[in-house]
Amino acid sequence: MNQTNKRYQTYLQILREELVPAMGCTEPIAIAYAAAKGREVLGSIPDCVEIGVSDNIIKNVKSVIVPNTGGLKGIEAAAVAGIVGGRADMLLEVISQVTPEQKEEMKTFLEKVPVRVKAVDNGMIFDIIIQLYCGNESAKVRICQYHTNIVCVEKNGEILYDADVPENSEDKANAEIGLADKTLLNIKDIIEFADTCEIEDVKAVLDTQIQYNTLIAEEGLIGDYGANIGSTFLKFYGHDVRNRAIAKAAAGSDARMSGCEMPVVINSGSGNQGITVSVPVIEYAKELFVSKEKLYRALVVSNLIAVHEKTGIGRLSAYCGAVSAGCAAGCGIAYLQGGGYNEIAHTLVNALAIVSGIICDGAKPSCAAKIASSVEAGILGYHMYKNNQEFKGGDGIVNTGVEATIRNIGRLGRDGMRQTDKEIVKIMMDEE
Questions:
Q1: What is the tens place of the pLDDT at every residue in 242-301?
Q2: CA of 86: how far to CAs of 33, 72, 161, 430, in Å?
Q3: pTM, to two decimals
Q4: Strands 21-23 and 127-134
Q5: Fewest beta carbons within 10 Å, which of 27, 50, 341, 365?
Q6: Which residues are CB-neighbours of 303 under 8 A, at least 6 positions away?
Q7: What angle do CA 59, 60, 61 make, to 5 degrees?
């Protein structure tokens, strides 16, 4: 694929947009980012905070520890972290520079300043509205569609910035204004791009992914995080490359969901998906002694396939994003071992047929176990192909051809699980 080709440039832009560093679970970090921007606009520490969030934000923030807060959890903590210690210019690393003094200030702020949270439904799956008040002064910041997409900024009721948001409800749920056109993604062209792309075009973003995601995976195995899925997996199933790949991916999530203060490079807006799509491929590359160039190309495959799967589903859904990433990791592993279109297409279909029923019930320690199951399915999907076995079109949600199956998965996650998503949120809120 030629560098001047539109598809080449689009795929390259997708990698640059999707593979960015973030500290902490990205939904609470998006809240912190909006709050930090709000404080910047307000120009002072507020004496009252109002937060409006869509159901999926509630689901993904409720149970996760916000890093650099001294163990605080939830929507209020995420907003206060951004207000007290956030730097809006650092985007999804907004609270990476918090000081010990600011951690104490956060606790004091939560004790003394009213912070009110309410659910909002503006037809957007991803929606965050932060309103800050200090005396007669006020500031408002709204993020929707994806984690850094500020669409509205106001001060004292005056609009400082206002972006177009799609009017149609279907467009609202799926459109991502300002980002590369992901509808150009398909498995055949992803593989061609991976085979032919100039390494210098992708090296910087992939080097950061390799470094950050490997470090947090190793930290997850060493430390006592979450339910310790990674170390449990190795203890009972052994240390061969398959088990290491599964365990390390799970361990990265173990650490991240429990407030580990290390950054990751995300995929499709998710740190867990970024870890899942990369760490198993990196582990297999070490075992197979492949060249660094081969690893880069395999990571291009796994990252872009994960984004392709998620495009039809949307950023947030009742469909677990680890499934998309784990199945894509299986494709990257297949590529490392010389797999081309047939191997990768069959790997992906086989894997999706196995684990597409896993639900997303928010960010929390059990994400690590779902990652383990998804990576295991991705590897099994490849081994099935190598053993001349496959799930065929007409087997449940599997259709003839990989692209048709991906479309079915998008329909399942976006439309079929919409009511499931609502019930999950209700269940989670009833537990309080």
A1: 999 999 999 999 999 988 889 999 999 999 999 999 999 999 999 999 999 999 999 999
A2: 7, 15, 21, 31
A3: 0.91
A4: unpaired
A5: 341
A6: 15, 18, 19, 209, 267, 277, 278, 328
A7: 100
